[in-house]
Design goal:
Keywords: Lyase, Pyridoxal phosphate. This protein is α/β, with parallel strands linked by helices and 426 residues long. Helices cover 39% and strands 14% of the residues.
């Protein structure tokens, strides 16, 4: 992980990885395209879609005692174990919900309604699901909401800006793992350590939805009380979110059936396909990891797989910025601005915010689409962008977010299209 510019997958492995995903080079109509909008969703593993279809087609209820019901119960148990494996979590509760946003609201509500304190702390870069949960429950509980500012020079949040807002009266801290506009990673480990030095029993909630597909999460190094991720941004399928809660957070009063255990969070019948999807995602990452380790331990394989993904994506990011013999990088194309750029790529996930001179952001997105590229405009008129963009002094940007299943040829093609767009707009 020490390589500052990353390490590309070998060509043969890159081809194998691509073959495991749906619609990497073409859309479902067979039209050639680059899907560089993975921060808004994710290219899907074929194995996940197939497994979800198989498991969801089973009419059986996992709460019964017959053979297929017990099989479904095993699928759910394995998936629960794999949620903990992804996070390197021990104990606690795994909460499966329709969306990761729903899990975030539920976790923040349980803490805000049951933990004493006069203020709640968050950051300006949070996704609305966490920021709005904090804001709404701060208002309902008559607490002060303290918001750490962003750093336009880094595109992230300074640790000191978060920690200075915490005191003995802080009820809960909510912080995101990485910005979904700049790609800047937030130093969660330092925030947890320094925040708990101020208040040792502080409850901490983390949004890992954006970061989980790009880098490792290790709750043994960053012990928090709630953290969520979404399979649909993690090579999986929509309609599912997972939240892990610490033992003490899981036992806080929350909505549940009265006959269920104190730390049980799921409401209604389980959907075993949700858990099957997580296991297929973990299986895939472990397959990648087995190239670099002989260990039979599943978490070890997962760690190596995610490290390989991170290194490959860092190499793609370096190529996007600096280019190759085939095409200049975004930093070197006249008429292209790279917002929130940072020289240390180890502090970045594979997300870029750019603009092209002479083109309004939504127009830029449409021009890219005409040329077979899907990107996304982040503009201040959107509830999903306004607060973050304004904190950076921006009114908008075009977000570019490839995935590790893309290769250097895909990046070069994008750069060639961008160069032509910029030249045409000049």
């Amino acid at each position: 992980m020490s390589s500052p510019h990353g390490l590309l997958f070998p060509d043969s492995l890159q081809r194998e990885i691509k073959s495991r995903f749906h619609f990497v080079d073409h859309d479902h109509h067979g039209r050639e395209r680059l899907f560089f909008e993975n921060a808004g969703g994710s290219l899907r593993l074929r194995s996940v879609i197939e497994r979800v279809a198989t498991v969801d087609a089973m009419p059986d209820c996992p709460e019964r005692i017959h053979e297929v019901a017990l099989e479904l119960k095993d699928i759910q148990a394995c998936g629960t174990d794999d949620v903990r494996l992804v996070l390197n979590a021990r104990g606690g509760a795994v909460y499966a919900s329709l969306t990761a946003s729903g899990g975030m609201f539920a976790a923040v509500r349980a803490i805000a309604e049951n933990v004493p304190g006069k203020n709640m702390v968050t950051t300006v870069l949070e996704h609305p699901s966490s920021f709005d949960a904090m804001a709404q429950y701060a208002e309902r509980s008559a607490r002060e909401l303290r918001v750490a500012p962003s750093n336009p020079a880094t595109g992230g949040i300074d640790v000191a800006e978060v920690v200075r807002l915490i005191d003995a009266d802080t009820c809960v801290l909510s912080v995101i793992c990485a910005s979904n506009i700049s790609g800047a990673k937030i130093d969660i480990a330092a925030i947890v350590e320094q925040a708990r030095a101020v208040k040792p029993d502080l409850y901490i909630v983390v949004d890992a939805v954006q970061h989980a597909p790009h880098g490792l999460i290790d709750l043994q190094k960053t012990p928090v009380d709630a953290i969520n991720f979404a399979p649909y941004k993690f090579f999986g399928s929509r309609g599912s979110g997972f939240t892990w809660l610490s033992d003490r957070a899981a036992r806080l009063p929350h909505d549940k059936l009265s006959g269920k255990p104190e730390n049980f969070w799921d409401l209604g019948s389980a959907a075993p396909w949700q858990f099957a999807a997580v296991s297929e995602i973990v299986d895939y990452v472990c397959w990648l990891g087995r190239r670099d380790t002989a260990s039979a331990d599943r978490r070890t394989q997962f760690v190596h797989g995610m490290q390989a993904i991170e290194l490959h994506e860092r190499a793609l990011l370096a190529r996007l910025l600096e280019g190759s013999d085939r095409a200049p990088g975004l930093r070197h194309i006249d008429g292209v601005q790279v917002f929130l750029d940072h020289p240390d790529l180890t502090r970045r996930d594979l997300i870029l915010a750019i603009s092209i001179d002479g083109l309004e952001h939504a127009q830029t997105v449409r021009e890219y689409e005409k040329r077979g590229v899907i990107v996304y405009e982040r503009v201040a008129s959107s509830i999903y962008s306004k607060r973050m963009l304004e904190s950076f002094g921006l009114q908008g940007a075009v977000r570019v977010s490839p995935l590790h299943c893309h290769g250097p040829d895909d990046i070069d093609r994008f750069l060639e299209i961008t160069q032509r767009l910029a030249a045409g707009a000049a």
